[in-house]
Amino acid sequence: MTTFTKQAEHETPVISVHPTRRISKINPNIYAGFTEHMGRCIYGGIYDPGNPLSDSNGFRKDVLDALKDLNIPVVRYPGGNFCATYHWLDGVGPKDQRPSRPELAWLGTETNQFGTDEFMKWCEVLGTEPYLCFNFGTGTLDEALAWVEYCNGTGNTYYANLRRKNGRQEPYNVKYWALGNETWGPWQVEQMTKEAYAHKAMQWAKALKLLDPSLILILCGQDGTASWDYYTLKQCLLPAHSALSTSAVPLIDMHSIHLYTCSNDHLPNATAPLAAERAIEITSGLIDLARIENGVPPNQLRPTICFDEWNVWDPIRAEGSQGAEESYTLSDALAVAIWLNVFVRKSRDVAMACIAQSVNVISPLMTTTEGITKQTTWWPLYLFSKYMRGWTVAAHVSCGVYEGETSPAWLRGARDTPWLDVSATLGEDGYANLAVVNIHDEKSFEGVVEGVVGGAEVFTVTAGDVMATNMKGTEEVSVQESTWDGKGPYVFPKHSLTLLRWKAE
Prior knowledge:
By secondary structure, the chain is of the alpha/beta class. It has 11 helices and 22 strands.
């Protein structure tokens, strides 16, 4: 948690960090990934058979090596909008017998050469857990139950035996499963009303947990600020053993929300992720409201928030049906850093967050046939995933604020947008970590940092211009390392991310 006091522009900013005041544990799953059959994410991204850079499985080794640096705990698959017409049985078994199908989400052709078993193998090589999304469009409950049986079944049953026949003896033990994706959206095949979705989600959840009570089921929310979120939570967060569930365990474990932010103007772009912070707060309140209204006992585990799609994305400049390949700037990197600050600050509520997506599609990592490029947004993701773990700790910021237009517009009336955006953590290794994003595009801030003991390692992400990019053949934005003796004021450069790291007492 970071609290904030607005002060006049001429006053010296002050950041106070209290490493001993632990607020909440950070779930490592906030650094989760997302791979969808969209554009070049799968084919030409993580899977590129025949390329000299690929291994015997067809997996791009350079992509795997890069992603391993992020220590990604969970990866979502196969969508996204793609899953609304995806039939998992098309993607298992001998590859020469897998059908090619028209793909309606992104208007392409799906060859099904990469499917469940390939994804599970890729997760094992990467060292991550899978998170699968059910087809709530053209799919059926029987199909969903069969997929769980295929992935997790241990008995002498048809789909567990099919998995064995396809070469995998032991179950995959997939824990995380989403009850559809963005089923509220007009772009969806089989778009639903909130009433129809809530009814279907409960019926599917009941059957799925009868088959495997250990599943973590994730309800399909909207953006956390919509009547869809209130209604579905009210209808689906019921006491165990309620009339609709008769289950010994709660049917819903997490609530998913999605949000993408962007603006062509730097300051609205950089501050836009603060809308996600307010959305998390609203969703958290709606979870409590549903539990109160439905009489959920306090000892029943409280659902958490799964922010399983987030990023900077302008679907006009990076159209989805054309592969959604964004060329990110320093401004976008600072926005991503604020996104990550939000997840750290809200660690009590957010148990998973999946950046969309892991490779090529609105991604910090881009491939060519010859190699990879780490975009500007790679570097805040790298620093946070490496250092901003453990516990969220108390911090307080006093500084001036940006008072101009915001994107979305409602953000301006919902919360402050300080020049210095801050989160702080205490790692299991005893190190305190302070992430500070100075969004000002013209002014560096000389500030007081209270709580630093001795010297600190310093990691800085910046460039000469907020429009600097790594997509023009040179790496204009990366991480610069230095040290600070901890004495006197510290200068936070204009348009920069600074991460200070020191051994806490």
